[in-house]
C-alpha cells in the first residue's frame, strides 16, 4: 500500500460507503438470540440453519423473523402414532407452516401443514432415526426452520394386559374402543325388515347367519373393484358355523317332528356371508345393507366339485348323478385365503348333521363304505343334529331330504336316486370369489376331506410351489399340508378370473400329513395313491385311486402312521420367517400312557370356581414348525411347542410349562392369526393373536383374545415332565420354546358363554375385526344368560346375538402396538 498519492489512496476496502439503516451481522445475531430462538440439534445445527435460511430471510424491511421450535427429540416403536409438536411465533402474521422429512424410512405425515403433525412409526428392524424440518414463513416472506429427530425402535406390544373377567361385556385395554358392526339377523338386502330378535324372524338367506367364525377382509375401491390397500371399504367374508337353536324361535325349537319353517330357518343360518363393511368419515365402522356385493352362501347354494374327486362314484347323488355338482356348505369354521383375492371356507363338523337309520348300518356292514363312515364319525345309527329330517317338505323339495344318508333300497345301487353319498360331498375346502356375487363356489377336493378347521397359506415366493396348512379338528387327528403342483407366478395375484386361477393352483398337487419325531424333527408324508400302503392291497381300507385317497384322507393318514394330535385347530404362518403355528385346543382322551413328545401332557385340571376336574390335556398347547430350507415345498421339518395353556396357579414343573402369569394364562387355544405384512404388526416382529374356546377355565374367566410376539423354533430347551392322573404317573420328554413372558398378554375378554373366534384387520392394521360367537349359549328364551351385544351399549335385556366387532386404538395407531 502507498500513501500520499494526492487525492487517490488505496484503502483495501476499508471505507464505509453504506449509509443505509440495515443492521449489522452482530446486531442480527444478537437480536435473534435475545429472543432466545434455539434450533434443535445443538449449536452446529443452529448455526447452519441460521445462515442457511434465516439470515437471507431477515434481509427485509425489519429485523424480526418467526421464532420456531420443532420440539425436543423423541422415541417411539413401529406402528405407534408419533406427534411432531412444533411452535412458531411472529410479530406479524405466519402465512405457512410445513413439516418435511429429511431422513429415515419415508412416512406419511397427517396435518403436515400445521405446527402439530402425526405419522405412524414405520416398521424397522433396529433403532432408526427419522429427521424432520419445520419450516415457517411470515407475511414478509421471512423463513425460519427448525429440526427434530425421532428414534424408532422395532415393534413391541403397546398395551397393559386385561385382567380375567366374568362380566357380560367385551373388555379391552385402556385406549381402545370396540364397535359392533354386524350381528345375527342383520338384513343384507334392501327391503329386508329390521331384526326383531324375538324368534319371529325368518329369511336368513338375506340376513346375517349365526355363530360368526373365521373371516377375511378384502379391500374394495371407491368404484367397486378389488383394492388390497383400502382401509375404509371392504368385503368381509364371514363363516356362520352353527346356531343357538332355541333363540331362533319364539319359545325355543319344536320337539318331535319339526315344522318345515323352523328347519329351513336353522339351515339357512349356517354357511358363509359376503358383506360390505365401510368406515364413515367419523371413523365408525358399519355394514352396508343394500350393497350389491352382499351375499349369503348357505347349505342350499349350488356349488361345483373340482379336483381329483370330481365325477367320482362316491359323490353321486340324485341332485348330481355325475358327481360334478354339490349343494351347499355347512359348519364352516376357520378359513384361509389366496393371493388372487379369493376366500377359502372350511367345512368342519359336518357329519353330525346327517341322519342314518339302523337299516343303513345293516345294509353297508362289511363294506368299504361302512369303514369310511365309521372313520368319519357316522358308523352307527343317528338322528342327525336338530332333527331336521323329521320335517315334512313340500312335494319335490329335497333340501331337507339330503341330510338323510339312509340307503333307499328301491333306488339305483350307484346312489344316483337318493342321498346315500351326500355325506361325501362335505368335508372340503370351498373357494369363493367375494367380488363376483354371480360366481359359483368351488369345492377343492385336492385338499382332502376331513373336519377342515382352516386352510392357511404359507408365504408365496415366485417360482416356488405354494402350500396351505390344514388342521383336522377332532381328538387324535392330524395336521396336513397341501402343496400345489404349480409354482407361484406373482402376476396371477391381479387376475380378474379369480376362480380360474384357483383351478390352476388348487386342483392339482400333493396332500401331506405330518409326523412329529421325539428328537424335534418331522416329516411330511405324501397321501399319494400307489405309494406305500395306499393301494388296493391295504387290508383296512383298499384304496381304489387318488380320489379314494382324498375322500378318505383320514384312513390314508392312519395307514401312513401320522402323529395323532390334541385336536388340531387353526393354523397360521409367521410372515417374517415362514414358521407355521398350530393350535391344539385340548384332548380329554389323552392319557399318561399315550403321550408323545408333540402332545406331552396328561394331567388333572381342577375347577377353581367349583365343578368337576378335567383329565387329559384340558388346556391345550400351540405347536410350531420350521420347514427345512424355509420352503413350502419341504418334506422335512423341525418343531417345538411355543406355549402350553394353563392356569397361572398350576404346577410350573409339569403343567404350566410356559410360566404363564395372571396377565397371560389361557386355556383351549383355538383361533390363530398373524398381523398383515402391509403394516408393522406383520413385519420384523409380527403380532400373533390367539383366541380361546374354553370349557376348562370358564369358572375363572370368559373366553379371551391374547396378543404375542413369538420367537423362533428352537429358542427354548428340552424337558422331561411327569404326568399324573389319579394313581397313574409317567414321564415324557418334550421340546419347549422360550417362555413368552411379557411378549404374551391378554388383550380382550368376551361376554358370558361366548367363544372368541375369527380375526382380520384392515391393511393398515388400525382396525382389527373380531368375532364374538354364541354369547349366552347355555340359555334359552325362558332363561337368557347373556344380553350381549345389547349389554355393550348398557342395555341388560334382549336375546344374545353372535356379532363382529371393530377394534380401534383411540389415538389411531396400529392395534396391539
Automatic annotation (TrEMBL):
Q: Which domain of life is it from?
A: Bacteria
Give the matching Pfam families.
K319L-like_PKD, PhoX
What's the protein called, per UniProt?
A: Alkaline phosphatase PhoX
Which CDD domains does the entry mention?
PKD
Q: Return the annotated region ranges for Disordered.
A: 1-24, 776-817
Instruction: Output the Gene3D superfamilies linked to this UniProt entry.
Output: Immunoglobulins (2.60.40.10)
Amino acid composition bias (Polar residues), ranges on this chain: 780-795
